[in-house]
Amino acid sequence: MPFLPFSHILKIRKELRGTDAEVSTWGCDNYNDRAKQWSDTCDVDIGAVVRVSSVEQVAVVVRFSTDHRIPLAVKGGGYSTGGYSSAKGGIILDMSNLRRVHVETSSHMVIAEGGALWDDIDVAAAQHDLAVVGSTLGQIGAAGATLGGGYGWLSGQYGLAIDNLLWARMVLADGSVVTTAADQNPDLFWAIRGAGQSFGVAVELAFRAHSQSNPVYAGTLVFSEDKLPEIGFWFGFNLQPSSIRCSIVVIVFHNGARAAGETFFSPLLTLRPTLINTQMLPYDSLNSILNVEDTLIRRSDFTGVDTAYHHEWIAGHRKRLSGSNIALPLDIDFVTSIYHQFDEFLRMFPEARDSRLFFEFLPNLQIRKVLNDATAFASRGPYYNISSLFRWQAASLDERIQFVQTDMMDKIGTLAGIASKPNYHVLTHGTGLYANYAANAPVKAVFGENVSRLQEIKTKYDPHNTFGKWHNFDISA
User: Quick check: helix, strand or coil at residue 109?
Assistant: First the structure.
């Protein structure tokens, strides 16, 4: 279907008549704002944007899309740079009105609606001295990040977000609503923990919460190139606002007192950073250190939110997120070569100066305690994620910049990743690709030996591939 026919727009409006769902199409005053994507590379002509405010409305839109074979994209936080939140000629299911969070203190459980951002969850939980394993960015959608795995600041203590997912309510392709947990629809629960975007719309997620009454020591340290051989932890490369030379940025986090944090990170602090921006923070503010702007209005344990992005956060930039992996021990000559390649890229494309590349050395022993076939998530192994977010303005540069990014990620994975190590085996050591960073990668490369089981479950729950926007388990091929 090249574009949503007007007759279908009339039908979906009719099916939602009497509800507070909002259908925006060409000619509506709010169409452009609601169709807008975080990355300009994902802006395409949309047939309709349906902003829903109930599970029942979600079910109507999903069933309608399946029955009429209309391309469907689910937009929670809208953070995707791979086009997963957009559907050319089709329907965007806008979840931004489904962002309430409820905290059950007696059971240490946090229940979030499917459109909630991590900021929503962090703030609600913190009011009860609790925390949830979430993302390292507060502005992104919790459902999408979780269903793909979910790395966060607390992963070293408690594992991935999916390892702390207790149950989820899902709207399936036929519009039915089911609860899935270890003892309810266990095959679906296995699949959504790592590949969930391909199986339905998560309208509610229940997370195990952990006690977190203390503030945390966190922030950023900036170093010059000559300090690279002595730096570990989580570090990356970017341009500081007033600099013309690529800097090394280290993000530090210690779940404890300042003195303990400074002692732990003393090997870095004694290297005399050019900039130190560390402080004691309440945990619910931790994710803001990588955010552009805090858009959350803080209220009780049911959060009210400002659904609009900050202008600088969304408009006027083309963005692409990509990833790889790197294994220890680090070859400092190789890492230095990547630094110089990234620095050269920034010099060659000055408008890409806001791009960044991170070596995410988050502790992963807790993550690796879970086997790679215990859930759909198949990237648990003795390596660490690499993430790169490239950002530019001119569409004419798309192909060149994306080529540089892909080449850099492939180079790191091939020469310094887990696949370069002797006796490497996917089932034992993981695929090395984090699904949320691996846009357009073959599903076998991301999910490894789990692909065949995922395709079987896909046949059961989504036989017409309604949810094929993310990693596509094409069962008709």
Answer: strand
